[in-house]
Amino acid sequence: MKVSQYMTRQVLTIAPQTEFRRAFDLMHSRRIHHLPVVDADRVVGIVAERDLLLAAANFGSAEVPVSEIMHASPVCVSENAQLKQAARLLVVNHIGSLPVLNSRKLLVGIITETDVFKITAGMLHARRATKTAAKKKAGKGSKKAGKAIAPGKRKTVRKPAKKVAAKRK
């Protein structure tokens, strides 16, 4: 599975000179948590919602450009990279998002930790949906495929008790 199959393609970006409160308002209105900072079609940084909240606490009402707050030279991933590689980059670098670049190093998308969680949840759901393969493996042709049973354990099947009709006198 490639990153390009799951990334968000329409990425909201900001310029380095954007005032940090404006960036926060954009995040809040669009319900996003990360904004790539782009200058001359190149990703020069990234700013997270947490960075902007800390800036608000430190700078108060001062007008501060995002370039003073952003993480310069952010960790990025290629659109052709495997999803597993992107997930590892997120975990190893303790970050919440990766700008996705094409072969010319231009921003073509973004993938976040939330995207990875959603993909994983979807994969688990898809595995459960393929019941015919599971039936053949588990039951080897049996009509019902139940839960996997640990080796050496037997599955007890209990038959429902028969209802006995009370005799009337």
Query: What is the N-to-C order of secondary-structure elements (H for helix, E for strand)?
Result: HEEHEEHEEHH
Please summarize the sheet with the most strands.
3 strands, antiparallel
Helical region count? 5
Strand sequence of the main sheet, in spatial order? 1-2-3
Average predicted confidence as pLDDT: 80
What is the rounded distance between the termini?
Answer: 73 Å
Instruction: Name the assembly state.
Output: single chain
Number of strands: 6
Q: What proportion of the residues form beta strands (DSSP E)? A: 15-25%
Using only CA atoms, what is the Rg?
A: 26 Å
Query: Residue share in helices?
Result: 25-40%
Shape: globular
Helix and strand composition category: alpha+beta
Low-confidence sequence ranges:
124-159
What report would you give on this structure?
The protein has 169 residues and is an alpha+beta fold. It has helices at 20-30, 49-59, 83-93, 113-129, 131-139; strands spanning 34-39, 42-48, 71-72, 77-78, 97-101, 107-112. The strands form 2 sheets. A 3-stranded antiparallel β-sheet has the order 1-2-3. Strands 4-5-6 form a 3-stranded mixed β-sheet. Strand 4, helix 3 (83-93) and strand 5 form a beta-alpha-beta unit. The longest helix is centred in the last third of the chain and has 17 residues, at 113-129. The chain is globular and about 45 Å long. The protein starts with 19 loop residues before the first helix and ends in a 30-residue tail after the last helix.
